[in-house]
Amino acid sequence: MYPVDILNQRHEKFVLWVPSSDGSTALPPVFVGLWVLHPTSVSPPLADGVYRYWYEIQDTSPAKRGRLLVTDPLAFAVDYDVVHSAGDNARDHPASVVKIRDGKLWACDIDGTEPRRPLVADQTLVAENNHLVIYELPTSWTKAGTDSRGSDVDVGTFSDVLALFDTSTEGRPILAELGINALELLPPADAKVKNEWGYATAHYFTPDYDLGSLHDLGRLVDKIHSKGIRFFADVVMAFGHNPYSYIDFDNFHLQPSLETDNPDSCQSERSGQLRDGFGGYSWRYIRSLQSYDPDVNNIGNYNFLQSYRKRAWELYKGRSDSAPDASKFLVIGEELSTPILMVHRGVVDALWNEPWQGRLRASILGESTGGDSFEWTVRKLVDCRLDDINGAHFTSGVQAVNYITSHDIEGYHKGRLYNFLVDNGISNMEKRVKLAFALLLTSVGIPMIFAGEEFADQMDRSVDMGKKQSDPVNYRRKNDGGWRQALFGYVAHLVRCRTKCPALGENDTEFLHVDASRGGKIMAWRRGLSGDGKLLVVVVANFSDENTPGPEHVIPNWPDRDQGS
Hints:
It is a single chain. With 565 residues, this protein is α/β, with parallel strands linked by helices. Among the domains are: 5-106, no CATH class; 509-563, no CATH class. Helices cover 22% and strands 20% of the residues. It has 14 helices and 25 strands. The strands form eight sheets. It has a seven-stranded parallel β-sheet. This is 1,4-alpha-glucan branching enzyme GlgB. Belongs to the glycosyl hydrolase 13 family.
């Protein structure tokens, strides 16, 4: 049973919710505008089998195209080989696919195969949040191929992601070798834009048609769960190409340029800048209200997100016979304005730490940022709790997700690390990239590796910094026999340290040394609590362009130096 009634009804009958509709065919309790149809109500009744269907609606989008056939917004699977044209530039409306069995509606792939629930990961094997290393991956980037767009374009599928973990397949299981213990797939839900990984989610309950089936996605989750690897799915709720832009536009979507006084029309992190639907339409977060209670329906307190987290926790508790472990449960918010109060209020467990990326990229160039000295640029990089972000602080490393690069490559200092260093005139690539990963994997916070950065992949096709990267990862570069292969081994070693070393899972950090004779650009710091026989981690970082003279560099405050350890 679901806590949302419409999803329970969806298992019994066809349902379509149109809030602006004048009537309802559902029995109480009802949604306003809920249309329902039981499969036995059709004459003749629908026999057991696999069906493809659409809903016929009056187009409410700004184009007002009249009557249209649209995909079921709650479809479990869609079939783009059977489509209805909407007469617009977006991908046509695919058929919704459902299986009728014993008078009820069941999720199935387009061939009628009913998926089973994926295996639940053994909670004794999965990592606690403070020892996570997340790998961020758009599924299609896992393989390069040829299609209508040209050669060497991204054509990867869920099965290709599986191969990166599977030691029994041909080739090298790169992610198994890297040792990451969490995978974040960029939106696995179906997108309207064909053969493109970008944020164009159309059908939230079905996997992307180009990436594979429900069965394929389930196999991938089974495999990584069997290895104790946690799975994160990226969910996009800012904009999309979904059927509600036709079914009931004004209740679900908006045109920011026509509602400039509406706060929902503006970017959260950029004052006054209107939202971009990127070819789709921006979601409307709240419509009109007949009454108002700030404790109940105030969008500003993020109750709708908190309810998502609450439901996720309930599901997590119910999937294991053992007592739930909060240290192995995580809902992450990707909000680039970094509203830390969302974490403090329990809306989400962690946030992307966007300022961290800026500090990292400045520091490996030997520069300061944010009005801080170079020393304090590094201190706040190493311990994110020191960073004042809009008047608030992270209080623990498990609240902050740090990254060198992300899928958001638009803007200054945002591209792939290799291209960033080339653009800044850096020739000794290997040393700078190793420094970046040493900082990422030893600093306070949850490290996230963007696919391909572990061997300094570079952008081959998309060089427009105003757009998201569309290149597939060139995994062949990892085995080049040169510095990239050495870099991968170095990063894999650091990943093992991060996932296994207790000190790197603690918040405790102490700076031991800042070498004033080198302009403050040789520093040392300790991670982890001392005493009780605990092993510490001491990091020594040289941010200068020069090696130190002689065979050694003395750190005066090295822990337990007097005892010879």
